[in-house]
Amino acid sequence: MQKVKIKMTDQNSKSDLMEKIISLCKRRGFVFPGSEIYGGLANSWDYGPLGAELRNNIKQLWWNRYVHRRDDIVGLEAAIIMNPKVWEQSGHVATFNDLLIECKGCHQRFDQEKMESGKCPLCGKEKFTEPKLFNTLFKTFIGTVEDAKSTAYLRPETAQGMFVDFKQVLDTSRKTVPFGIAQIGKAFRNEITPGNFIFRTREFEQMEIEYFIPVPKIESDWQDVFEIWRKEMHSWTEAIGINTEHIRDYEVPETERAHYSKKTIDFMYEFPFGEKELYGLAYRTDFDLKNHFPEPPYRDNHSPVGEHESYWPHVIEPTWGVDRSVLAILCEAYTEDGDRVVLKLKPYLAPYKAAVFPLVSNKPDIAGKAREIYDTLRKKYAIAWDDRGNIGKRYYSQDEIGTPYCITVDYQTLEDDTVTVRARDSAQQERIKVTELPEYIGSRVGMLS
Amino acid sequence: MQKVKIKMTDQNSKSDLMEKIISLCKRRGFVFPGSEIYGGLANSWDYGPLGAELRNNIKQLWWNRYVHRRDDIVGLEAAIIMNPKVWEQSGHVATFNDLLIECKGCHQRFDQEKMESGKCPLCGKEKFTEPKLFNTLFKTFIGTVEDAKSTAYLRPETAQGMFVDFKQVLDTSRKTVPFGIAQIGKAFRNEITPGNFIFRTREFEQMEIEYFIPVPKIESDWQDVFEIWRKEMHSWTEAIGINTEHIRDYEVPETERAHYSKKTIDFMYEFPFGEKELYGLAYRTDFDLKNHFPEPPYRDNHSPVGEHESYWPHVIEPTWGVDRSVLAILCEAYTEDGDRVVLKLKPYLAPYKAAVFPLVSNKPDIAGKAREIYDTLRKKYAIAWDDRGNIGKRYYSQDEIGTPYCITVDYQTLEDDTVTVRARDSAQQERIKVTELPEYIGSRVGMLS
């Protein structure tokens, strides 16, 4: 009995946590329902002022880490609407054009006729949607006539852009394998059952790398690169403030893997609504490049078929979701300390790097000095300003949105040109010279280097 | 005769310029045709490694300038697929559902029956598309059934997100008018005749601000804000390297304005293919908020109907296209100096802030030192590396993509720890101490402050 009770409490506190996060997101402008004044649009979410900053910071950290800081990866920004042949050739048009039922538990779809029992073979639940002819591609029409000839699709993943543009990127960047192509962008999937806040939405944003390697001669040729990426993804989760102990590497068994994948790791995170896939890593062999290039598109000294013969490089694909990153970051950062709610975001991810307060707003000397500091700092960083209510309330308000430092200009400032700097996590205060503030803040909130 | 000849030469050199820019973009990986291996997709373009960097730099400059650096503007990131009622209420669903012909010269669409002559009333051309029932909204379907009930649209502008989310942004950011909401994002228009490279595409990216003001009591109340924004847009074009003398403010006459706009300025830029709209600025009155809010959504001391009565703020809307910015920037920056092609990009917009070369690649001391400098600098900036061919060719290659500084490590470096730094525009070289490089480069390539 005791055990059940603990478990229930745990479940309750988790569902509590989710409610608190959703409420905070809405109340403070991180995330709110899309088109809310029209009753919303099933599982569509808009990112408000603070959410937009958090997303930008995640994307910039990622781009800086993988494109700018690395020699072997270049960026790409392909169109969302590509030639429909891309999706025919990749298998997307055909693969999902089937009568499918979807498990209401784990959201996997199955061919009903091929199922041996009424239970989901993956999660064991027995509840399914009605069978439907279903393709997860969002369809649209280009031009003035709505027919098969004009049909196009919204990309369901950014990945195919990197494969289709492989040769152009190769020719213009003069890279040689191993090298990667990175892309950040929106993708769309017509999911039957989206849900869990921003976890599963029909419109979402991906950060993906296609990392091309020579044709492996022995297994370890690809396994070694795979392992490096596996470690790198743990390192990334740490960089965004997720305790790596909360990540479980789930090696997807062969029966559940896409047929072209020789190995897939799902990085599982314990969300309040259960353990779910946060990121993914897959060795996709040469399946994709062979789909798009009838002739081998690449040649170098590593050619498996002779020094001057072209070949199809293999590919390892790490994938990150921006929206899932936001959600996991919020879950990890959300902290209660008595009455105080603190969002312990990594400083470089925080929407505001610091907040500046005049102790009182009706003293021109103090307000003017605070304004001056505010104007100096926001030349480089996103900085908040607050002159309402008392200092305690202002701290509370900044803690809740994760602002790492609060700077208060008071009477002493006018005498010795120092300010109070209060750190979010410790709530400790220290006096800092105004002239030293840019360096003090800058050295504490910058990107990792 | 002389005059005609000059004009023709001028036309030829302009079409030459466009071809040279398109060729450079393709050759060096700024922009190439989307889905090219499948024969492309009419006027769809992908941004390669350098184009992706340039776009990111433009967007970051804009976000920093208008969101971080300003007190009175906050960011937003609304979904691309919104509730279809948004587009019914905004007028988009109804407005374009008409039998239209489109002028092949200026791309304006007209109701054929209402035309008084066979000539386009705007540009005077006489070539039109066949009349078609046409709505520029891209249609898609949410869920498993393709019918009217499941129909949704890809947003044709980011603007409606700011109107629909007006109250949520207001409540969470606690702003008071005048204040603005800024958004960067993709939009889609099913244009009949896209064209001119990346100038007019069906998928494009906008940077928009909806700047809300109190209900004007006298004309100058909105005119003054409008003028401030007009000047600000000139200042922006200067910041991205466009000679303001190349911009012409075209005040759109009443007969051509949207019915709800009391004043519209099109900022015209002399592209190689003719003078076209680069950016726009419109006073949209309270049309949009009234469309979406049956009840007035805002209250403050400026209320025109009594201190405690709510009202609909008016709005001034400056709009920038990311893709058109890229094109205008490239047109302005493209320079020929004898054999040398130089892309004179503003340093903070350049894809690479600097390039590092070892004078020779087969001397470990020199290569190692160059590598060390490269690794240090790219912790903060996008930096290129080149050790192929001779130094002259490397300069040529970096000039062509707009890299502002080339740093060469040579034999002297090993003796006195200095390097050669060559400036792109002047081609002048100077010796700089290695220890001073981060400050030297940093102070020259950072964002405007």
Summarize this structure as a short list of keywords or feature phrases.
homodimer; 449 residues; alpha+beta; BirA Bifunctional Protein, domain 2; Rossmann fold; 7-stranded mixed β-sheet; 13 helices; globular; disordered N terminus
Strand content of chain A: 25-35%
Number of helices of chain A: 13
Oligomer: homodimer
Number of domains of chain A: 3
Work out the largest interface and the residue count of each chain.
A-B, 84 and 83 residues
Net shape of chain A: globular
Mean pLDDT of chain A: 91
CATH arch. level architecture of the largest domain in chain A: 2-Layer Sandwich
Helix content of chain A: 25-40%
Q: Alpha-carbon distance between the termini of chain A?
A: 51 Å
CATH superfamily of the largest domain in chain A: Bira Bifunctional Protein, Domain 2
Class from helix and strand fractions of chain A: alpha+beta
Low-confidence stretches of chain A: 1-7
Number of strands of chain A: 22
Q: What integer value in Å does the Rg of chain A equal?
A: 25 Å
Classified by CATH, the class of the largest domain in chain A is Alpha Beta
